[in-house]
């Protein structure tokens, strides 16, 4: 029983470490440190070209005002530029500058390094063990303290795609509450 209790404690510690990891402002090979929210907006712009600011707010689970605030800060630092489409003076769009693209590449490299060790470890496991670990993650997702209508929580363990963007066989899910893509 001691080993099982120790494993559960390690799981909680790991979840806390991952939560802290997301809160650390980092330099992704650019002139400024960027927060998780900063890089999330930049990555969202990178992945959704020609998307209105109001749609970005839905993707990120932020208010329009929060997106505008982050965008203004990132524009001042030289990571993105606002623009409008001819004939539509109301809607604001954003595009990444070279520095914004560099920050996104730096973020990708950072997470690629983090994932490499995990992928190497998992590749050494047999299929049954991988399935059991996946089941543990599903259990955690199902028991997470999120609203009843969270599509991520209620599709844990199911492999059906929830988006047309499923081009590589990868299941893409969006929380109906916060609109974040998982």
UniProtKB/TrEMBL annotation:
<dbReference type="InterPro" id="IPR011991">
    <property type="entry name" value="ArsR-like_HTH"/>
</dbReference>
<dbReference type="InterPro" id="IPR036390">
    <property type="entry name" value="WH_DNA-bd_sf"/>
</dbReference>
<dbReference type="InterPro" id="IPR000835">
    <property type="entry name" value="HTH_MarR-typ"/>
</dbReference>
<dbReference type="InterPro" id="IPR052067">
    <property type="entry name" value="Metal_resp_HTH_trans_reg"/>
</dbReference>
<keyword id="KW-0805">Transcription regulation</keyword>
<keyword id="KW-0238">DNA-binding</keyword>
<protein>
    <submittedName>
        <fullName>Phenylalanine--tRNA ligase alpha subunit</fullName>
        <ecNumber>6.1.1.20</ecNumber>
    </submittedName>
</protein>
<keyword id="KW-0436">Ligase</keyword>
<dbReference type="Pfam" id="PF01047">
    <property type="entry name" value="MarR"/>
</dbReference>
<keyword id="KW-0804">Transcription</keyword>
<dbReference type="GO" id="GO:0003677">
    <property type="term" value="F:DNA binding"/>
</dbReference>
<dbReference type="GO" id="GO:0004826">
    <property type="term" value="F:phenylalanine-tRNA ligase activity"/>
</dbReference>
<dbReference type="InterPro" id="IPR036388">
    <property type="entry name" value="WH-like_DNA-bd_sf"/>
</dbReference>
<dbReference type="GO" id="GO:0003700">
    <property type="term" value="F:DNA-binding transcription factor activity"/>
</dbReference>
<feature type="domain" description="HTH marR-type">
    <location>
        <begin position="4"/>
        <end position="145"/>
    </location>
</feature>
